[in-house]
Design a protein that fits this description.
The protein is globular. It is of the alpha/beta class and 278 residues long. 41% of the residues lie in helices and 15% in strands. Helix 1 packs across helix 8 and helix 8 packs antiparallel against helix 9. It has 10 helices and 10 strands. The longest helix is centred in the C-terminal third of the chain and has 16 residues.
């Protein structure tokens, strides 16, 4: 947005923000064998994340995203592909090692899964982690998905998070009602088997259905420094609330606070802790 380069990427952002909420997180990705990749590896380690499953490939450059701010304040993402994460290739031993930790959740978006290799990696992990709940943060990026891919991933997910434009896209794609977010969430759950669904509403807050109850939580006013990464922090707080068994109103209140806090500071992974939230 301001011409600077900053470390980020939805899975990394989500992993760091989840750690700050008290959860053990493991990042699974790949970096290029280049200067950007070396800098990224050091930075990832500085956040306290293990790089055990962050591979290095000489075949492709470290993945980047170009974020531009449009006249209406909306972010526009361009993600050059192929990129290093497309070369991720977990060995059977690595999959077994991941499974031995018995993770409770498996988080994924759409971008990585647009290749046969990426989709194959996800399915191997799902097979190895039969008890893990699957959290799908849709994060649609231009020219990085197909309608069938999105439908397939919606069917795999236990929990889905999406914004209003993504909700409209999914509703049109799957024939779901769009008259209000509650109808969308309930119909989506009936169609795809979700146990929870969340629609972010920008400055208006969010709407959450947790399998039983539905609530909308108002957003918080803040002087925005940088919205990149705010949605990933929101997603981490959403997962936190679900793991605690909270009602949708309480989950939404925390998620909105975390997302707002991150948006008020520059960078996708600004420094913060729970004392800043409460």
């Amino acid at each position: 947005i301001d011409g600077s380069a900053r470390l980020g990427g939805a899975p990394l952002n989500f992993a760091v923000h989840s750690m700050r909420l008290g959860h053990a997180s493991t990042l699974i990705s790949a970096l290029g064998d280049d200067e950007l990749g070396s800098r990224a590896r050091l930075a990832i380690g500085s956040y306290g994340l293990s790089t055990r499953f962050v591979q290095t490939t000489a075949r492709l450059p470290t993945g980047t995203a170009i974020v531009e701010l449009g006249p209406n304040g909306r972010k526009a993402f361009r993600v050059p592909k192929p990129a290093s994460f497309d070369a991720l290739d977990l060995s059977d031993d690595e999959v077994r090692h991941i499974a031995s930790a018995m993770p409770q959740w498996l988080y994924f978006g759409t971008l990585f899964l647009g290749t046969d290799r990426g989709a194959g990696t996800l399915h191997r992990l799902i097979s190895a982690l039969p008890k893990a709940k699957k959290f799908y943060d849709i994060n649609l990026r231009p020219e990085s998905y197909t309608p069938q891919l999105v439908l397939d991933l919606l069917g795999l997910a236990d929990v889905v998070k999406l914004n209003e434009p993504e909700m409209e896209y999914v509703a049109d794609l799957a024939g779901l009602p769009i008259r209000n977010t509650e109808a969308f969430c309930r119909a989506g759950a009936a169609r795809f088997g979700w146990s929870a669904a969340c629609v972010t509403l920008g400055a208006r807050g969010c709407a959450i259905w947790n399998g039983q109850d539905y609530a909308e939580s108002q957003g918080y006013e803040v002087q925005v420094a940088d919205t990149v990464g705010a949605g990933d922090g929101f997603a981490a707080a959403l997962l936190h609330g679900l793991t605690q068994g909270w009602g949708p109103g309480d989950i939404g209140a925390l998620a909105n606070r975390v997302g707002t806090l991150i948006a008020s500071r520059p960078g996708a992974i600004p420094d913060w802790d729970l004392n800043d939230v409460y």
